[in-house]
Amino acid sequence: MYEGCTTGTPIALLIRNTDQRSKDYGELLDTFRPGHADYTYWQKYGIRDPRGGGRSSARETTMRVAAAVIAKKWLAERYGVRVRGHLAQIGELVPRLPGGTVDWDAVEGNPFFWPDASMVGELEAYVNALRKSGDSVGARVTVVADGVPPGWGEPIYGKLDGELAAALMSINAVKGVEIGAGFASIVQRGSQHRDEITPAGFLSNHAGGILGGISSGQAVVASIALKPTSSILIPGRSVNLAGEPVEVVTKGRHDPCVGIRATPIAEAMVALVLMDQALRHRAQCGDVGDVVPRVPGGSS
Fold first, then answer.
1. pLDDT digits (tens, 9 = 90+) for 41-86
2. Helix-then-strand count for the chain, H and E
C-alpha cells in the first residue's frame, strides 16, 4: 500500500496470536477430545499439536475476514454489491421479526449480530445460563448479498451456489449450508417454491438468487448451521493414544455458542466467492450488463 492505494503487488497481512494460553491444553497431550479434529489429524499425520491453535482453530478464520475487507470494498465500489449477515437462530431462540424483515441497524448495534433489538437481554441471559451449566448450543447464521448482477456463476463445475456451499462449509464448526429456502424446500409444493417472474421482476426468492448455478439478479441468500462447541465442562468419554478409555473435561476459554462470532466469517466467505465469480465473469463475458440488472421483458 502507498498513500492509501494498492501498488499492484500482493497485499500482506500479519495478525499475531498474542493471547494464546497453551497451558490450558496441558492435560490433553495424550487424549483425543470428542468432537474435535484431534483424532482425525492424528490418523492422517501421525502427529498433532495439542495446544489449541493451528488450522482446526477458529482463529484461523481471522485472515479470511481481513482479506474479505478488500473483496467487500471492491464489490461495493464496482458493482454496488452489499454483503451483510446476521445470527438467525441460537439454540431454540429465533428473532421475533414482524413479517420476517431484518432490522440491519439492530444487527450492527449488539454483539450477537441479532436482528431483533428487543431480544438482546434474553440472549444474554440464555448464553450466561449455558456458560454456567458448562454446556453449549448450536446456531444458524444467514448472509444476504444485495445488488448481485445476473449472470455470475457457471452452469456445472463453477456453480455460484456450489462454490458458496464449499466456501461456507470450510468454516470451522459448520455442519450444514442452505441456499435460499434450503431444506424448507422439502415440504414446499412446486407451485409455492418456484419463483414466478413478471415484467416487474421475481415474485419470491426461494432459490436464494441463484438459478442453474448462475445469479438471477435477486439477493443471494445463504445460511449455515454451526454445531455446538465441543469444548465443554461436562465430562465426556474418549480414548488416549494407547486406546485406553478416558474421561475428558475441556478447560480454558470456550464459547457456549461459536455461532455468536461466526457472522463476520460467513460474510467474508460469501464476499470472497462473489469477487472470484465477478472477475471470472468479466474475463468470459466482459462488463456488458454487469452494472444494471436486467429483467425479462424490461429494459437494461
1. 889 998 887 776 678 888 889 999 999 999 999 999 999 999 999 9
2. 7, 10
User: How confident is the model over 203-242, as pLDDT tens digits?
Assistant: 999 999 999 999 999 999 999 999 998 888 888 898 888 8
What's the N-to-C CA distance of the chain in angstroms? 37
CA angle at 205 for the pair 203 and 211, rounded to the nearest 5°: 110
- For the segment 111-133, what is each residue's pLDDT rounded down to a tens digit? 999 999 999 999 999 999 999 99
Task: Provide CB contacts within 8 A for 216, sequence distance 6+.
Answer: 150, 195, 202, 207, 209, 210
Q: What is the pTM of this model?
A: 0.90
DSSP category for residue 31:
B
Instruction: Tell me what the pLDDT averaged over the chain comes to.
Output: 90
Rounded-to-integer distance, Cα 120 and Cα 115, Å: 9
Distance between CA atoms of 243 and 31, rounded to whole angstroms?
Answer: 9
CA distance 211 to 85: 21
- All three cell numbers of 113: 449480530
- Other Cβ atoms closer than 10 A to 65: 16
* Nearest in space to 153 (alpha carbons), one of 144, 143, 163, 145: 163
Kindly state the cell numbers that stand for 298. 424490461
Q: Are the C-beta atoms of 67 and 74 separated by less than 8 Å? A: no
Give the three cell numbers for residue 192.
409455492
Asked if residues 137 and 228 have their Cβ atoms less than 8 Å apart, the reply is yes
Q: How far apart are CA 90 and CA 110, in angstroms?
A: 15
In Å, how far from its chain's centre is CA 53? Answer: 20
> Cell match 466456501: residue?
167
DSSP letter (8 states) at residue 151? T
